[in-house]
Specification:
single chain; Aspartate Aminotransferase, domain 1; Aspartate Aminotransferase, domain 2; 2 domains; globular; binds 4'-deoxy-4'-aminopyridoxal-5'-phosphate
């Protein structure tokens, strides 16, 4: 693979920041966009822009065709049984809230357990806290071990028949841990629990296949996999979606309306009220085409090489503590704490050298408490990053030591 040529598909990367070449190491927060996606958005607005599903004129039918073609692409990309299992959302957060407010409200009662893990992003924690308050269900979590993996003994103990929902992250955005999704979903199924997998950090970084993983719900955000912001996906197993009540009411989700009441469309349209982010959906389709042309296995291999290399070089920086698994297969990010600098100060210092990283709690405050750190600095990689950029990061970390001490 010619990764340097692939990198040149991303115009934003070719710039100087504070007099240095930009080193973008914040893709776990949001990825950059290739020209193919930017052009698809521009083409849509220049040629086909119109509302979908509503009119019989040429532009509307072009927009509708492109919109529904993207739904088919997503279904193929994540290996679902049918495209009717794909609901467009604003992102992971909205997808999880949709499940909590529909399936959750309909199915949970006092005495039921919602099981999560101690490494969840706030978006896979707070909606369940709200749901527990509303329904009287109890929220429990599987603890995280010192090495950043889940406590498997606790999984056996906690995954009981009281558990109605088991929601967990596929790849942790704060540790890089890859959870054994297929195995955990099978265990949950054995006790009759429904599963929700947060695919924010896995989708677009590795092949994901719903039928193979065996989860009931899956969420991801387009902006973390080369697509625009504001668009994401909720996958739900069709039998579950069909039994779920609507959440948002409005145009396009109804079958018929009278002043007295309404009936609703079948999924997925029942869950897509109002005008959707049409350009975002088309951009997501373009991102999928782009990623598939490179190959998800190739992307995964390259990401893994980058993060293995980074782990190796960064672990030699004096005073560093890297969170998460120290060896083995891990996601493409390294989150760390330096004993001589607060993460916010370090991120600002690195920025003066053109390096973009994220410092803070990464929307995982309970995890920061668990590891007794005020926050961490996170360097996260995608296939457009290079070994030279990691070398540059290590140089700047070594210089930071002199600067801060
Ligand atoms: N889960 C994980 C693991 C994430 O990393 C993120 C984004 N940081 C989210 C959920 C939420 O995604 P979004 O803000 O796009 O809804």
């Amino acid at each position: 693979m010619d990764w340097h040529r692939i990198r040149s598909d991303f115009p934003i990367l070719d710039q100087q920041v504070n007099g240095h070449p930009l080193v973008y190491l914040d893709s776990a927060a949001s990825s950059q966009k290739p020209r193919a996606v930017i052009n698809a958005l521009s083409h849509y607005y220049q040629h086909d822009n119109s509302n979908v599903h509503r009119a019989l004129h040429e532009l509307s039918s072009r927009a509708t065709d492109a919109f529904e073609a993207a739904r088919k692409k997503v279904a193929r990309f994540i290996g679902t049984a049918t495209e009717d299992e794909i609901i467009f959302t604003r992102g992971c957060t909205e997808g999880i809230n949709l499940v909590a407010n529909t399936w959750g409200v309909q199915n949970l009662r006092s005495g039921d357990v919602i099981l999560i893990t101690g490494m969840e992003h706030h978006s896979n924690l707070v909606p369940w806290q709200l749901l527990a308050q509303r329904t009287g269900a109890t929220l429990k979590h599987i603890p995280v071990l010192d090495d950043g993996t889940l406590d498997t003994a606790a999984v056996e103990m906690l995954l009981t028949e009281q558990v109605k929902l088991f929601a967990f992250v596929h790849i942790s955005n704060s540790l890089g841990t890859i959870n054994p999704a297929r195995e955990l979903c099978a265990k949950a199924k054995a006790v009759g629990a429904v599963t929700l997998l947060d695919g924010a950090q896995s989708t677009g970084h590795m092949p994901v296949n719903m039928l193979d993983i065996g989860c009931d719900f899956f969420v991801f955000s387009g902006h973390k996999m080369c697509a625009p912001t504001g668009i994401g996906v909720l996958y739900g197993r069709y039998a579950l979606l069909k039994a779920m009540p609507p959440w948002h009411g409005g145009g396009e989700m109804i079958a018929s309306v009278t002043l007295e009441g309404s009936t609703f469309k079948e999924p997925p349209h029942r869950f897509e009220a109002g005008t959707p982010d049409i350009a975002g959906v088309i951009g997501l389709g373009a991102a999928i085409d782009y990623l598939e042309a490179i190959g998800l296995e190739n992307i995964q291999r390259h990401d893994t090489n980058l993060s293995n290399y980074a782990m190796q070089c960064m672990s030699e920086v004096p005073g560093i503590r890297i969170l998460g698994p120290q060896s083995g297969h891990r996601g493409s990010l390294v989150a760390f704490h330096l004993d001589f600098a607060h993460p916010h100060d370090l991120v600002e210092y690195a920025n003066t050298y053109g390096i973009a990283m994220r410092g803070g709690n990464h929307c995982t405050q309970p995890l920061m408490k668990r590891f007794k750190v005020p926050g961490t600095t996170r360097a996260s990689f995608y296939f457009y990053n290079t070994i030279e950029e990691i070398n540059r990061l290590v140089e700047v970390l070594l210089a930071a030591r002199k600067f801060f001490t």
